[in-house]
Design goal:
Length: about 110
């Protein structure tokens, strides 16, 4: 960002500590994002469409309200990935894929 503005990084850091800069920055962000009322209307629309069966609207609503986060997959091994054979790595990947497939089978939309 500093390079884009043509200033030294330390200058940018000083600006970020000034209240007037932070207030202007927040105002700019708010003007881009719109008012909370607009956001609420948009969420209400997504919710209504989701209840009508629009699965994309349901997904977007759940993501926007932090009700649906992608699952975190943790794979543990006592060895570094570079030390694993191709077969061992393939086996780990297959196990993760199988878990993902099984979890998606429970989410079928009727």
């Amino acid at each position: 960002m500093a390079a884009h503005l043509g200033v030294n990084i330390s200058t940018l850091r000083r600006w970020e500590k000034k209240d007037v800069f932070v207030e202007q920055w927040k105002a700019s962000v708010d003007s881009i994002q719109g008012s909370p009322e607009r956001t609420l209307r948009l969420l209400d629309t997504l919710y209504s469409k989701a209840l009508e069966g629009d699965t994309k609207s349901a997904q977007l609503y759940l993501q926007a309200t932090n009700r649906m986060a992608p699952p975190t997959v943790t794979v543990q091994s006592n060895r570094k990935t570079a030390e694993l054979s191709d077969e061992e790595l393939d086996s780990l990947i297959a196990a993760v894929a199988e878990r993902e497939k099984a979890s998606r089978n429970h989410l079928k939309v009727v």
